[in-house]
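Known limitations

Files may contain more than one protein. Parsers should not assume a single record per file. Below, a two-record file is shown to illustrate correct handling: read the sequence, read the token line, then continue until end of file.
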Amino acid sequence: MKRKALILIVTLCVSLTLSAQTVENKITEQRYKIGVCDWMTLKRQKLGEFKLAWELEADGVEMDMGGLGKRDSFDNKMRDPEQVVKFKQHADSFKIAVGAIAMSGFYGQSLVEKKSYKWLAEDCINTMKLFGADVAFLPLGGTGNDWATNPSVRKEVVKRLRTIGNMAAKQKKVIGIDTPLSAEDNLTLLKEINSKGIKIFYKWQTAIENGRSIPAEIRTLGNNICAFHASNTDGVWIQNDKFLQLDSIKAALDETGWSGWLFVERSRDISDVKNVKFNYGANVRYLKKVLQPKYVTLKSDGLDEKYVENILSRSKKAVDALELKDEVDRKNVLHIIANRYFELNKIYADRDSLKKDKSQRELAQAVCDSRLYKSHEGFLSNLAMYLNNKQIDTVKDVMTFNSLQVQYDALCDMIPSLTEEERHQVYIWYKEAREYAIDAESSNKKHEMFGKYKGRINNYLSARGYDLVKEREQWYKRLNERETKTGH
């Protein structure tokens, strides 16, 4: 327990240090900023939303005002000054911006039926001011399906939106509305509202569900759009969605000169919809890859040229196995893998240096373990910007001499009577061995890791009644017979 507590403390310290170092340029003046919706990432007004956004490599969050239901006010923690201080400190520590404030409660509540709508708007605008957010999200989903065509209801919607918009405009803020209307009809609605404080918070999912072209509507609306919900309904990631051709969307954005925030709301893989980091991490990385393209720098400054050459040669084997067609992707993946080797070398060198002081040996290993954890997750996240899961597995296999498949195939060949359950368990353990092996400091340590798991597997099979000595003897006999038949 003492060791676990020490590792936990060091992990926190290292995380905060790394956050300051690696994201110091996150909130820059890039044209397109990528964020996530805190209510969808299960962090609605929770301090952890900033660390999560940082882990997802997002630029910011869209913070929700809290639940509404049939109450007259949002369940908004940000009316408490102490909470505001805590939240701002956490946001600053991870360099994560609050890009927008959301009134998601209006997904289920009607704007025209809420007598407290002015107070709700004021509460939202005050929260925007506290966090420096210039945009808020107001969905009209709870107002019903016919508000746009029912003259009396539409008149009330327009009246209330004009009031809210004017309130926002006085504070130099904008309330972005989400409607089911076409781009042309949204322009008509904005003219009716006639307030500088109301624009369109454009939702890709809404356009797709109504069979409309996102690029065409972007060109029509232009700077009448204040922000985007840049995702579709749940099903597949953005990069795998045939309805989301991001290159075409970017071309429309570039053409109009638009700049601002795009927030991922959904587009979760339906097979693993509850896995927040898995889904939002992939979507954020893909949006940033297309909208904020960058080239991976080889971090070889100060390193021995022959060492660098050797590492690049080793890394190239993994890249060649991927058969990537895009030369930029090839180079970036090559640098990501090589940089990982450089990073591992530094982590272990620092550990060994600290261990020279006998009193620091426990701390040295704790720091090393913490840095390895961060490095491991960062490595896989970086690869995911360019590779799919199967390709990432290929990289892992090359880095670990294909030991997973070689040892698994050998064991299954040695004991052909293994049940499906046993084969599955063995494969899971070898996969776990591979995860640790890609962090190992040398080829010997990689092999040792697989040896460790082989021992666990042998104990498991022995406990299930297998005579491993006998199985191995019979296997060698079969191998010799095969060799005799084939001549090699």
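...continuing to the second record:
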Amino acid sequence: MMKKKWIMIGFLAAVMLQTSMTAFAAPKQMSDGTIFDAVYYADSNPDVKAVFGTNEQNLYTHYKLFGKNEGRLPVAPTAYPTPATQQSVASIMENGFDPVYYANNNKDVVAVLGNDPQKLYLHYTLFGKNEGRRGCAPTNTNTSSGTSSSSSGAYKYGLDQTQYNRVLQRADSNNGNAKSLVSKINSYRDDKDRKKLRREDVLEEAATLLAMEMDDNERASSTRPNGESYSSVFSQFGISGFDEYGMIYQKNNTSDMGKLLEEWKSDSSDKSELLEKDYRYVGVGRSNKYWVLLFTD
């Protein structure tokens, strides 16, 4: 009831001053650059249409203030024509978009659009990019740790194959807890009007390595065993293109994600990291008694 009350208050003046302008019959680019189809929005949201009719500006104002956060779409997922739909898969990938990566990391999109590369690319260009979704995996820029063997025995990210396999195994075994923890963190952020965080595989691997280093050395610290700051793990794993980053770490062998989150919320510095408004991505790492969260924008 409170939500409907605010909608009515916020749009009362707009409804009273509604002109005779009717909704357009096709998607159009609004003044802020957003593609919006008033007819589609009204027909797809009869509860909104019942209040605001077909007035394009009122419908768009509702989308900006409420609909977007409620998961309502501004245009039909596959209806809006764009040059992207004429591109071959090869051309799409040349533009830096990996449809396999996008599908694997955006199951909600696949549930609606399927696995068609062109539809996935269309979603990314119209919505995903603005939502903070990545079109491809971060590139590993650490040239000294390629995927082939070298004189130093490096396999990937500066790790030998056995070390890297340990990271993957730990990350995989912790997947259920990580999913539960991020869900609880996002509920907490949502209550504080913060954007939800998205789990990122490479961040998860980097966080897992940090947790393993703490476990191996029996010491929770933001300084790695080689004396470098924890932040060096970003360049090691080829994670770049961000402005804000942070970490939460703790020695704690609990498997109760609610209890773990409550402990972090009770610490002022950890709470600040959990609620940082610019963060968009998170990786959860665990190795026996040590937990690590890595964040980037």
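Parsers that stop after the first record will miss the second one. For reference, the second record is described as follows. The longest helix spans residues 175-191.
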